[in-house]
Design goal:
The protein is an alpha/beta fold. The protein has 12 helices and 11 strands.
Length: 320
């Protein structure tokens, strides 16, 4: 029997697994990748009796492979907050799925564990730009304002590390970052250790953000803004978290952050207005390789000649 942990390489996926493995330490095979690499069950060849945990990847996008590993005799625990589609009815499948735009996978795991490792869940919620949800969850921790801000920055930095067209774009492969974080019982211990990966994540994030803020806006009106970042590695890293920052600065406006795909076209990160956290998933699903959740979604490879169509669809979706 094998233990297999399948998880998104962003803050939410990593922090969800951290909580589960702090509660139930297990030697496991890790299956992960960059944030947009979500068809992770393709990589799993299950055997009868295998125990598979799947965190923060769309069940809808992995349904056929989920059915395959269940047929192979595995038991699956599936936790997620993305669009799920039809959930298979199988005795070997346990699900914890909620698509409410104000909850993330790590907060679902936090509920499942009764708040045992809540600081990691708060970190993840900040990373997913669910600031109000993070602050609400943190109330029972009695943190100072400085401690809460530290968790926010850490969550953003872990999330930032997940973006890129390939693992080569990242500061750390997500499985490596997870293993390092798993050495610390709390996020504060990780940040306090001068030998940890935190400084590299922190400095990389703020350096890349500074470059992104110098980029001119391609298109904007009261309800929509579109930014095309230059064809650089840092652009692929910062695209998602820069979208989160702009959403916080302009909560009534939808945003699309585009970076260049190495094989042509654009990688697109879409953020619904924070004051109307809906429709981003449906918008992106109108395009091939698009999907996500209600408040934040993306398109893995948008043809360049489809840019104006994307802008038109955003204007239609978020018209005042």
């Amino acid at each position: 029997m094998s233990i297999i942990d399948v998880f998104n390489g962003d803050a939410d996926g990593i922090c969800a697994l951290l909580q589960l493995r702090l509660d139930n330490p297990q030697e496991s095979t890790l299956v992960t990748g960059v944030k947009r690499d979500i068809k992770l069950l393709d990589r799993v060849d299950a055997q009868p009796g295998d125990e598979i945990t799947v965190l923060d990847i769309s069940l809808e996008k992995n349904c056929s492979q989920l059915e395959r590993v269940l047929t192979q005799g595995a038991k699956v625990f599936y936790v997620d907050h993305h669009m799920a589609g039809e959930i298979p009815d199988h005795a070997g499948l346990t699900t914890l799925i909620d698509t409410d735009p104000n909850i993330c996978t790590s907060l679902l795991v936090d509920q499942h564990l009764g708040g045992k490792y809540r600081a990691w869940a708060v970190t993840a919620a900040f990373g997913d730009n669910m600031n109000r949800s993070a602050e609400q969850a943190a109330k029972q921790l009695s943190l100072s304002g400085e401690q809460l801000e530290a968790l926010k920055i850490l969550g953003i930095c872990i999330n930032y590390n997940g973006y890129g067209s390939s693992v080569d774009d990242l500061h750390f492969p997500p499985d490596q970052l997870y293993r390092e974080l798993a050495s610390y019982s709390t996020p504060f211990d990780f940040m306090a250790d001068s030998q940890s990966a935190y400084k590299r994540l922190h400095d990389g994030y703020f350096d890349d953000l500074s470059l992104a803020e110098q980029t001119e806006i391609e298109y904007q009106n009261e309800q929509v803004a579109v930014i095309i970042l230059p064809d650089e590695t840092w652009s692929r890293r910062i695209s998602g978290v820069y979208g989160n920052q702009l959403a916080n600065q302009h909560p009534d406006r939808a945003h699309a952050i585009l970076s260049y795909h190495p094989e042509g076209g654009y990688v697109v990160s879409v953020r619904a207005p924070l004051n109307n956290k809906t429709g981003a998933d449906e918008l992106c699903k109108e395009f091939p390789n698009g999907g996500g959740r209600k408040g934040a979604a993306g398109i893995n490879q948008l043809p360049i000649d489809q840019l104006n169509h994307l802008i038109d669809r955003m204007n239609h979706r978020y018209k005042v």
